Amino acid sequence: MSFYLCATMAAALLLTILTPIPASAAPPDDAYVAGYAAAVLEREFNLPAPSLRVRDGVLTVAESDLAGANRARVVTTLSRIPGVNRVEVLTAPAPAPSATPGTRGSPASDEARPATTLEYQIGWLPGGILFKPLIADPRWPHFSAAYQYYISNRQLENVAAVSFGETFTFYRNRFEDVLWEFGIQASVFSLFNLGAPSKDLINADYLAAAVAGFRWKDVSALTRIYHQSSHLGDEFLLANSSVQRINLTYEGADLRLSYEFWPGLRIYGGGGGIFDKEPSDLKPWYAEGGIEFRSPWPAGARIRPVVGVDVQTRQQNDWSADLSARAGVELLGALYGRNLQLLLEYFRGHSPNGQFYQDKIDYIGLGLHFHFN
């Protein structure tokens, strides 16, 4: 895969995100969705739900308005309405609307809104994932394009890092208060040398995984069994004939746990091991932990500050720490409720790029990161 092909795909993705959607294809506005949802509640469940609000595709309704109804069925029905990205059930009655008559669906401010319980759709292809994407993990599957400047590196200086991938949920259900789901992860992580005349592909890592997710209130977990293989670029090998190619490929299993507390703050940790590996002398065990903050302020804004720090250690590297830090802004609902992040990046530690796992690198960068979940 050439740099130009990856750059073209990344540019097409960004154009899709940033180009205004024609009116004929525009998603329903919040007022329309609110009216539609109110009609569904009254017709199918005989619920007037005066607390119902919609903002940026997020539908909220007071728990007291659902009394006597099958809550899971109500949430699933509301989630299927075109234009609804997710449903939140307020744990206290919503404040009285300040909008004028006829504008049902205008939201109250974030400060006045009571605590919420996030509801997830149940069934096949429900959308979203129970375990939120990790901001600073350099190997979290998602769409991204980043420039990286390698500090005091003898081989590389100006680098482009591109990834294509996502986590997809096939089925979700609940057991009492615990939600569970299964799906897949797939991704390609590519690295290009911008200092070479033809922007050589240095390395490409391919990841495929079967995943299972769980959530209980503010605690979530993700476990997976995965395969990863790494491949050096042909032009890189031709220009660096002294480099000995390593056929790096393995299967692995891991588990991550996450706890969300205080507005927007999250901690996580976990670990795993690899097996059926080549080279056979690779040491199997690794651990990961981190902290993230997604600002709930300013109220009503579509651009919010985000920051994340991720630390990974591996037995192969004598448990030395690999530090990844990212900070910037997140554009909420950049495309049909999906989020776009513009992040400053810093990494120091052993390279996450394929057969270079024994090399220490230190870089700063700037990247665009697009999440479907």
Describe the structure.
With 373 residues, the chain is mainly beta. It folds into 2 domains: 25-119, no CATH class; 130-246 and 288-371. The chain contains 4 helices and 17 strands. Strands 6-7-8-9-10-11-12-13-14-15-16-17 form a 12-stranded antiparallel β-barrel. It starts with a helix and ends with a strand. Mean pLDDT is 83; it is low at 16-25 and 93-117.
Q: Which helices and strands, and how do they pair?
A:
Elements: H1 3-18, H2 30-45, E1 53-55, E2 58-62, H3 71-79, E3 86-90, E4 116-119, E5 123-124, E6 143-150, E7 158-175, E8 178-193, E9 201-216, E10 219-232, H4 234-239, E11 249-261, E12 265-278, E13 285-294, E14 303-314, E15 321-335, E16 338-350, E17 360-371
Parallel strand pairs: 2-3
Antiparallel strand pairs: 1-2, 3-4, 5-7, 6-7, 6-17, 7-8, 8-9, 9-10, 10-11, 11-12, 12-13, 13-14, 14-15, 15-16, 16-17
